[in-house]
């Protein structure tokens, strides 16, 4: 059993390939080749899925506002997307447990494609209820994208686990940048078909999610999760159709796995709280939409662009070390953003970049820690629970952020966002979280 990258010391010598345990099935050349293929397919699905989700999110809000004339209704469109991702996180994990990652991910993107078509109908018939129902299903594509990062670890050896996960996370960069920039082109496409221009991004999402389904079903073979069980010899009666609650039960004696879930959730809630209100904060002093968009673009770069380097750091220095570094970066981001003037684009850009980088550290290190500390047959269930917790935390954070700014100020919000991060630092220092669980994490 390899524990490479699990040490929580500040500096840990990297474990070269020839120091892996003899007989490690994931160090064989054919398994490495299969892992590279899986990473390529999963990375491609992230690019496509990112185009679909990132492009459709702003369009959904605009469609809802055009129908209702209410900004609150616009916000609900995005909320339904988050709710959809949260509600389907565990069902997708259940599919992964019983049918494998390929079917689970393809199912998520199929529902995303179906949801996109439903939103188009809602836009044509100007029905807010239909638009919300579609946004709910489009959110499932988001859940599939989150699960893809865990699929990247199924065939990875322990000393490459974080790097594999981070490469798939990085794939979302392209989609996150390209998606919103297709609004104008897709709008003209929709007009040419006699549809409302705002339905265009959902036309793109429907097609792209459909292509992603085909990509996964055709090329993600053999299924990485089921193949990993076969290599470990875990394919036997009693584990073919495990229950989600078995995975939750599994966490009772896995404090480090719980910490990993907490790190992902805390990083996400702090990021969402500050990020969602920064454009509003800047708009109050008439900062141009172009400059606001630039700050958000810098933030997205912080979230994704450096993820491969973050993954290398997680494998090199240890999971808890990078979680701690992420917490420090998040606290710095809250301080920089909170102290910046609303029209100080440069300082806010630095703060939002650090906010994205801190999120990347807690996401990649926390997700890797969850995978390390949970027995392989239970991983999809616990990973699904992690995604559920992350999405719920983000939804709550968005609501709390609006209330805090309404009652107080953006500066107070950044201080409030720092509170759970400080709690994470204290949590990670608990001795039980610094001792390895007795689990197989080959």
SSE succession: HHHHHHHHHHHHHHHH
Percent helix, as a range, is over 70%
Give start-end ranges of low-pLDDT stretches: 1-22, 438-442
* CA distance, first residue to last residue: 5 Å
Note the total helix count.
Answer: 16
Average pLDDT reading:
85
Q: What is the fourth-level CATH superfamily of the largest domain?
A: MFS general substrate transporter like domains
CATH class designation of the largest domain: Mainly Alpha
Number of strands: 0
Give the biggest sheet. none
Tell me the count of domains.
2
| Share in β-strands | under 5%
Radius of gyration: 21 Å
CATH fold name of the largest domain: Growth Hormone, Chain: A
For the record, the CATH architecture of the largest domain stands as: Up-down Bundle
Q: Name the overall outline.
A: globular
Structural class: mainly alpha
Tell me about this structure.
Helices cover 76% and strands 0% of the residues. It is mainly alpha-helical and 442 residues long. It has two domains: 23-228, MFS general substrate transporter like domains (Growth Hormone, Chain: A, Up-down Bundle); 244-437, MFS general substrate transporter like domains (Growth Hormone, Chain: A, Up-down Bundle). Helix 10 runs antiparallel to helix 16 (410-428). The radius of gyration is 21 Å and the shape is globular.
């Amino acid at each position: 059993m390899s524990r490479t990258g699990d040490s929580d010391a500040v500096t840990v010598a990297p474990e070269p390939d020839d120091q892996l345990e003899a007989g490690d099935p994931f160090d064989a050349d054919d398994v490495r080749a299969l892992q590279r293929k899986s990473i390529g397919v999963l990375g491609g699905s992230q690019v496509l899925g990112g185009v679909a989700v990132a492009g459709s999110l702003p369009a959904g809000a605009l469609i809802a506002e055009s129908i209702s004339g209410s900004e609150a209704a616009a916000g609900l469109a995005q909320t339904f997307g988050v709710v959809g991702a949260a509600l389907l996180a565990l069902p997708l994990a259940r599919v992964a447990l019983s049918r494998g990652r390929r079917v689970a991910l393809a199912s998520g993107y199929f529902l995303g494609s179906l949801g996109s078509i439903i939103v188009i109908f809602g836009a044509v018939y100007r029905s807010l209820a239909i638009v919300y129902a579609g946004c709910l299903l489009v959110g499932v594509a988001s859940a599939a994208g989150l699960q893809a990062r865990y699929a990247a670890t199924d065939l990875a050896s322990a000393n490459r686990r974080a790097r594999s996960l981070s490469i798939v996370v990085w794939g979302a960069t392209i989609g996150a940048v390209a998606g919103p920039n297709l609004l104008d082109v897709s709008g003209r496409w929709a007009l040419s078909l006699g549809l409302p221009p705002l339905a265009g991004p959902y036309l793109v999402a429907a097609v792209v999610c459909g292509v992603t389904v085909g990509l996964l079903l055709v090329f993600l073979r053999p299924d990485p999760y089921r193949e990993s069980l076969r290599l470990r010899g875990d394919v036997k009666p009693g584990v073919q159709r495990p229950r989600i609650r078995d995975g939750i039960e599994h966490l009772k004696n896995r404090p480090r796995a719980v910490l990993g879930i907490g790190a992902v959730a805390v990083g996400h809630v702090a990021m969402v709280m500050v990020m969602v209100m920064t454009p509003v904060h800047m708009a109050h002093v008439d900062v141009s939409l172009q400059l606001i968009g630039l700050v958000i673009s810098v933030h997205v770069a912080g979230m994704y662009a450096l993820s491969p380097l973050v993954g290398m750091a997680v494998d090199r220095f240890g999971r808890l070390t990078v979680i701690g570094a992420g917490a420090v970066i998040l606290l710095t981001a809250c301080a920089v953003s909170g102290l910046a003037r609303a029209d100080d684009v440069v300082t806010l850009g630095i703060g939002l970049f650090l906010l994205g980088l801190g999120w990347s550290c807690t996401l990649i290190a926390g997700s890797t820690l969850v995978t390390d500390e949970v027995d392989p047959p239970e991983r999809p269930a616990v990973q699904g629970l992690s995604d559920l917790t992350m999405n719920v935390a983000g939804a709550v954070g968005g609501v709390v952020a609006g209330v805090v700014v309404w009652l107080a100020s953006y500066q107070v919000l950044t201080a409030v966002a720092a509170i759970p991060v400080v709690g994470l630092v204290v949590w990670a220092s608990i001795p039980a979280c610094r001792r390895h669980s007795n689990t197989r994490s080959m």
